[in-house]
Design brief:
Blueprint: E1 11-13, H1 15-18, E2 24-30, H2 33-38, E3 42-56, E4 59-73, E5 80-94, E6 106-108, E7 113-115, H3 116-127, H4 155-159
Parallel strand pairs: 5-6
Antiparallel strand pairs: 1-7, 2-3, 3-4, 4-5
Length: 160
C-alpha cells in the first residue's frame, strides 16, 4: 500500500471566501503521523484541528483549536514526557504581502491555497515550553557517570 494514500489532504482553497464578507468554511481534520514527524514532533495522540475560515468585513481569519498529546524528552534526565496540548490560535490570511508588511503577522496563502498542516504544526512547535521537564523537582543526570538521579543516587557525586 502506498503511504501517500494514508495522508490527509490538508490544503484548502480560500478563493471562495476571499471576496464574500460573511462567508465561512468549517475546518475539521486529524493530521497524520507522517506530517507530525516531518515537523519534528512525535505524537501519542495525533493533532486534531477544529476551526473556521471566515471572511469578516473583507478580512479572512483562520481561528482554530489544536488538540494532541506529544511525546517529548525531559531536558534534564532524558526521560520520556507525555505533554497534552489544547491551544487556540487565530491568524489573518492574505494572498500577497505588501513590502512594508511584517509577514510574521499574516498567513500567506499563495495561489489562494492554505496548507493547514503547516500552520498547525508551526503553531504547535511555537507553543511548546522552552524547557521540557518531567517534573519541576527533576534532579537530572549525574554529569560524571550519567546516572538518572531521579531513579537512584550515584556515589560519584557524593565523592566530588
Amino acid at each position: 500500500m502506498d503511504p501517500q494514500q494514508n495522508r490527509v489532504n490538508t490544503t484548502i482553497s480560500v478563493r471562495p471566501l476571499l471576496h464574500r464578507p460573511g462567508e465561512r468554511k468549517e475546518v475539521s481534520l486529524t493530521l497524520d503521523a507522517e506530517t507530525a514527524s516531518s515537523f519534528g514532533l512525535c505524537c501519542a495522540q495525533l493533532p486534531q484541528v477544529k476551526g473556521v475560515l471566515e471572511n469578516r468585513a473583507g478580512v479572512l481569519f483562520f481561528r482554530y483549536t489544536a488538540e494532541c498529546v506529544l511525546d517529548l524528552v525531559c531536558d534534564r534526565c532524558l526521560s520520556s514526557v507525555t505533554y497534552p496540548v489544547c491551544e487556540e490560535f487565530e491568524h489573518i490570511v492574505v494572498t500577497e504581502l505588501a513590502v512594508e508588511q511584517n509577514d510574521s503577522d499574516y498567513l500567506l496563502a499563495s495561489d489562494t491555497m492554505l496548507d493547514v498542516a503547516e500552520v498547525v504544526m508551526t503553531d504547535l512547535r511555537l507553543s511548546l515550553p522552552s524547557k521540557t521537564l518531567c517534573s519541576e523537582a527533576c534532579l537530572g543526570l549525574c554529569p560524571h557517570c550519567g546516572q538518572n538521579r531521579n531513579e537512584a543516587p550515584c556515589s560519584c557525586c557524593e565523592e566530588a
